[in-house]
Amino acid sequence: MSEARVVREPLRERLRDGFAHFVSGTPARFAIVVFVALITLWTVLLSLPVMSSRGEMTGLADSLFTATSTICVTGLTTVDMSTHWSLLGQIVIVIGTQLGAVGVLTMASVMGLVVTRRLGLRQRLLVAGDVNPMAMRKGGSASTGLSEVGTLLRTVALSTVVIEAVIAVMLYPTILLEGVDPLTAAGDAVAFSAMAFTNTGFVLPNTGFEPFLDDHWFLSWLMVGVVLGAIGFPVIYALTTNLRQPRRWSVHVKLTIVTSLLLVFGGAIVYMILEAGNSESFGTEGPAELAFQSLFLSVMTRSGGFATFDLADMRESSLLVTDMLMFVGGGSASTAGGIKVTTLAVLFLAAFAEARGAESMEAFERKIPGDVLRLAVAIVLWGATTVAVATIILLQLSDATLDYVLFDVISAFGTAGLSSGFTATLDDPGKYVMSATMFMGRIGTVTLAAALAASQRRQLFNRAEERPIVG
User: Fold this and answer.
1) Which helix (H) or strand (E) holds 363?
2) Does residue 295 belong to any structural domain of this protein?
3) With contact defined as beta carbons under 8 Å apart, do 234 and 131 qualify?
4) CA-based, 20 to 30 A from 393: which of 202, 225, 354, 361?
5) Is 469 inside any structural domain?
6) Has residue 398 been placed in a domain?
7) What pLDDT score does 92 carry?
8) How far is CA 436 from the centre of its chain?
9) If DSSP codes are grouped into helix, strand and coil, which group holds residue 362?
10) Which residues contact 277 (CB under 8 A, 6 or more apart)?
């Protein structure tokens, strides 16, 4: 064996050991590194001339924005997705949404498994942390136990394939009726299905979305895909394993289902009231169509991204309601973004407990620890700060009004993909700001905070207690 080879082997082993230590020792940072690497790779790929339908290079700002929107499964666009990209470019985009839909923590765990060749305790905790962020905190426990992490990963992969396949089959006949040839229709059905379940909302087929705006069958199946993607993989896992035994569902599953139903149907009712009589949207339609379109819009605010009309034509009151719904988003460990429905539920439970004078929060005959409330407050504050800073910067960079800028910024943070039309008018600096907002919204403020903190600091003493005046 040559001396050079002897030197290379220890170096290779040290690099491999160092990388494995980074994966297992700082999982949150590794998760962010994975996401940044994927966005960088997709930016390079989408900038290539072969990815463009015109055979020309796409500018850095548009490539980065599209790559971020793809990996973060947001759905906002600065170019026409159905005409700007070639078939190869659209395939790359669909693949990117599938990777992004898995979730930054789960995806990092799987890649860490590939690197270390085994799923160790820290990787299991990382996946459990995607199910429940409290699992990443000392003393926390995930709603899905460590022994079930392997089953959860299989559920993620299997549910993604099965759900997208079923929805594609249901959409296929409708696309055929539009005169699309069978092979192209199959690809279009897969694209629409993938965009629905991943909660992305890109319209990639050349037929566009216009032919299906009044097709209730087509729109209904898009809603099914968005709802299933937004409730989260832990909920899908619970429904598939204990459908007939709801008593065995965790508090997380119950809170997610109940809060999601309240937001979807509550939002639909509010839209029916606020948009009634608005001829620019769907307010002058009959009662049945008004109810259906209101429900479709409410579902899309979960992070769906599809819209059957120009959202800038909504009344300002409806725009504000949409802001609120998009900021909440979908369920934890889902393809949706936002602060998550369980975060909102915990805040309301704390308010109700305080109003009753109760010492602790309770839900479904279970006590919720106080550190869950602290985490929920941190998530909302970080999310609100991100939205506020991005909105202020974009207001300085553009001449747009506050309602439209705020709408698109919240859509970016909540990875909703709905737009008032402001995103299409962005110049390059604005595109970079929105890209950063999408990234912050997708990786999760808790993950970012955990990555920066790196480790918990143990405090071996308690300071004197003093209560400030609140309220």
Assistant:
1) strand 361-363
2) yes
3) yes
4) 202
5) no
6) yes
7) 94
8) 15
9) strand
10) 283, 284
Structure tokens at 155: 């559920």
Say whether pLDDT at 405 is over 90. Answer: yes
How far apart, in Å, are the Cα atoms of 42 and each of 192, 266, 425?
20, 38, 23
Task: Write the DSSP symbol of residue 339.
Answer: S
Mean pLDDT of 378-383: 88
**Measured CA distances, 193 to 224, 246, 341, 428 (Å):** 10, 29, 24, 31
Give the separation between CA 340 and CA 383, rounded to whole angstroms. 11
| Residue at 336 is within a domain | yes
Q: How confident is the model at residue 109 (pLDDT cuts 50, 70, 90)?
A: low
DSSP secondary-structure letter at 246? Answer: G
pLDDT in tens, 285-315: 889 999 999 999 999 998 888 999 999 999 9
Residues in contact with 149: Cβ distance below 8 Å, sequence separation at least 6, in sequence order: 119, 124, 127, 128
pTM of the model: 0.86
State how far the Cα of 166 lies from the Cα of 419, in Å rounded to an integer.
Answer: 28
Both tokens of 216, joined, read 């209730």
Q: How many domains does the chain have?
A: 1
Task: Give Cβ neighbours of residue 93 (< 8 Å, ≥ 6 apart).
Answer: 46, 66, 70, 81, 85, 202, 204
Least confident of 100-104, 215-219, 355-359, 446-450: 446-450
Query: Whole domain around residue 163: which residue ranges?
Result: 6-451
367 bridge partner residues: 362
**Which tokens in the block code for residue 134?**
């409290």
Task: Please say whether the beta carbons of 267 and 301 come within 8 A.
Answer: yes
